[in-house]
Design goal:
about 45% strand, 1 helix, 22 strands, mainly beta, globular, four-stranded antiparallel sheet, single chain
Length: about 250
């Protein structure tokens, strides 16, 4: 997710990815390919009205942005301080909420102006963030996903994500789509489609064919949102030059 990746870690991740075989893979179709800022170290992506909001990481380069979904043009940007590493991003109750990795704070912005409203203490390591319309839903790199009260940030409930008997960790960017929790697994090109009731993986999406083929091991998939133009899922990655609108070719199994 975060720092230069050793070859051994990548090999371990690839082996782990190939072992995730209990839930089926779902076929998908690419609907559109659109520009994306190749300098953006994407950590979070969410639709908001007619635009995308994007969180970027790396200390000294971290920001929150308003992005034109058709052209990838950055319409507005608010930078974080030099020591902040931005992470997951969602919109809830009229505010854009941005996690930070190890800074132990959560930033709250006005989603249109990107004015920083407040920075609050956050009790966890920040990875992915989404919402069900009532609670914040957060990952921390472990198999545990937590529902948090936006008022107090206290934990309301948790699930442990698993595929059969295998616990699924490194849950990164999150997006709730039609009652299913989507999460890309860091260091892989796979998205887990998770039942939010009990944490079981209902299916997988393998997006390895979208990999731009960079030699940079940090340029991994990270970014899932509902496209404001088509209302279909749109995905991208860290330092990727494109975003991709996709459509699933079959219903998600129970």
């Amino acid at each position: 997710m975060r720092l230069p990746i050793a070859t051994g870690i990548l090999l371990t991740a690839a082996m782990a990815s190939s072992a995730l075989a209990s839930a089926p893979d779902i076929a998908w179709t690419q609907i559109a390919m659109r520009p994306h800022d190749p300098r953006a170290f994407t950590e979070g992506l969410v639709g908001n009205g007619r635009v995308l909001l994007e969180s970027t990481g790396l200390e000294g380069r971290s920001s929150v942005r308003r992005v034109d979904p058709a052209t990838g043009r950055v319409l507005r940007i608010t930078s974080n301080s030099a020591r902040v590493f931005g992470e997951g991003l969602t919109v809830l109750k009229g505010s854009a909420w941005q996690l930070t990795w190890r800074n132990r704070v959560i930033n709250v912005f006005a989603p249109t102006s990107l004015r920083r409203k407040v920075t609050r203490p956050y009790p966890l390591e920040g990875w992915g963030l989404t919402t069900d319309g009532t609670s914040l839903i957060a990952s921390d790199g472990s198999p545990t996903v937590r529902w948090l009260s936006p008022g107090s940030l206290t934990v309301q409930r948790t699930i442990s994500v698993h595929d059969g008997d295998t616990a699924i960790g490194r849950l990164n960017e999150l997006e709730m789509i039609d009652g299913v929790l989507w999460s890309n697994v860091w260091l892989t090109s796979r998205i887990a489609l998770i039942d939010p009731a009990d944490g079981h993986v209902r299916a997988w999406i393998d997006l390895s064919s979208l990999n731009p083929g960079f030699s940079d091991p940090d340029a991994v998939m990270c970014g899932i949102a509902i496209d404001p133009l088509t209302h279909l899922p749109v995905v991208t990655g860290k330092l990727w030059p494109h975003m991709y609108v996709i459509r699933l070719d079959a219903p998600i199994p129970a």
